[in-house]
Every structure is written in structure tokens, then in C-alpha cells.
Amino acid sequence: MSAQTLKVIVTRQLPEPVETRMKELFDVELNTSDTPMTRAEIADALQRADVLVPTLGDKIDQALLAQAGDQLRLIANYGAGFDHIDVQTALQRGIMVSNTPGVLTDDTADMTMTMILAVTRRLREGNLMMQKGEWQGWSPTALMGRRIGGKRLGILGMGRIGQAVARRARAFGLQVHYHNRRRLHADTESALEATYWESFDQMLARVDILSIHVPHTPSTFHLLNARRLKLMKPDAVIINTARGEVIDENALTRMLRGGEIAGAGLDVYENGNDINPRLRGLDNVLLLPHMGSATVEGRLDMGEKVIINIKTFADGHRPPDQVVPAML
Ligand code: DGY
Question: Does 23 have pLDDT greater than 90?
């Protein structure tokens, strides 16, 4: 099929250069309002598109896929995570799914370090004090945080992003510990000077900072449940730039409020943008609106990947970033 006759429907507004390139290459329908599509609108798009370009807010489940037209052959996700798409059902229906891995790694790792420092050095409180005009001048005891050098950082999930965080963390003098489904190759482990823990529970009890870098899958849902959170040191902090569903948000909120966990930096939430209201206003919690990959460069690179995936598909080949069953 020629790329120019390919009906591509995009569910959200994308950076302008990405949309311009898509208009040059495909018969594309853009969402210029940037309002997320309703379920009915996604169903309509699935009925008409050869290729759908959704993003992480668009839940594409079995019931929606059952309404897809026979012409739909590719879901080219604008994003690395694909937990919002029922990939298994898509594949059973002969629909390929692709994503945009690799291009968000450094941005997300940078954001993770930013959040580690922001939480341990109490940036939120300092900034709030300045904005409210409450600063009385320098004081030897005001807003003392914790030094990160020499502390233990536990990384849950040592894939691309986990390793990028480990490299940065070493430069800050953190001791890197990790838990992963598979132990890293010995060379990689020693290059990162990382200590592997087969038992996540045992690692949890020993780290000062925990950073989450696993995808959301049935086996990682609430991996950090109330029992595991209680294993952590009360002066430990948790950073999550991966997926909210990995942490039991209610249990974490209770423990943060009760002083059983010292602090948290959260960029993602268990129920999307429906955040536990009791997390708001806590001094020891930094809340961000899923900004981990939000750089101009990263978002353009994501668009470039989507376009390459669609073009390769149009040329009759498998998209380079096809999600395959082994990844589920
Ligand atoms: C992704 O692409 O899945 C990221 O979470 C976006 O920041």
C-alpha cells in the first residue's frame, strides 16, 4: 500500500513538525483541539483508519478492538509504554502494534535525578516559601535536606531507563543497587558498579532511595503494596517516573502522611490524572504531571519513530519498533 493513500488517524495533538511531516507523507487526520478523544471517537477512528496513532491516555481494550474495521492493520503508539493497549487482542485480530522505545531514556533518567534531588533537598518547600514571600533570610537550621552522596539507591527495573539512572547516580556518589527480572550481564553490572538483589524485599529494606523503572503489567501491578512499603526504612524516599499502577497509591499516601516513608517524587499515578487528593499539599511529596519525557527533542524523536514505523509498514515490512508477544 502506498504511504500517501494510507489513512492515518492521530488521537492527540502532536508537535507541529511531526504533524507537518505526517501531512506530507500520509492521508492523515489530526486532532487539532488536543482534547482527548472520547471512547466513541476512538471507536469511530478504529473503524475508518488503516493506522491509528494513539497516546498513553487512550485506552484501547478488547471491546474497542472488537469494533475495529478490517482495514485497520497498525496501531503506531506515540509513546514507549503500551499498557493502555490490549496488544494480545490486537495481534489476534491481525493488527500490529508499535511503540517509541529508546528516545525517552535520557530525558526520563534526567527527570528521575531531578526528582531525587528535589525531594531529598526539599526544593518544593523552598520554592513555596519564596513564592509566598515568607523567606526571612539565611538560617543555619532552615530547610535542611539529606545529602545523596554515599546513600543507597535501589533501582526497580534495570532496563534502558534504569541503567541510564544508574550511570547518572554514580556521578552523584550514590551506591547503586537493583532488582530486575533478569540479572544484568556481569560486564554491564560492573560498568555500572551495581549490586544485584535477587530478592526485591531484601533490597527494599536496605535502600535510602527507591526509583521505579518497570512497565505496568499484570505482574508489576501493586508490586509496591502496603506489605512491601512497610519493609522500607522510615527515612527512605520513593521516586516513580514509570507507571503509577506499580505502587498502591492509597497505601503510599497513608504511609507518607503517617511519617512511615520520608518522601516521594511522583510523576505518574495509579488512576491517570485522578490523583488521591490526600497526596496533595504534603510537604514531603513532589507531584509532577507526567513530565518525564517532556522535552522538545524527545517529543520530536518520538514523532520521528512513529513516522518510521508507519512508513516501514506501508513499504510492506514489519515496523522496527513492533511490540512482539515476548515483550508482554
Ligand atoms: C511513555 O512514552 O510511555 C512515557 O510514559 C511518556 O512519558
Answer: yes
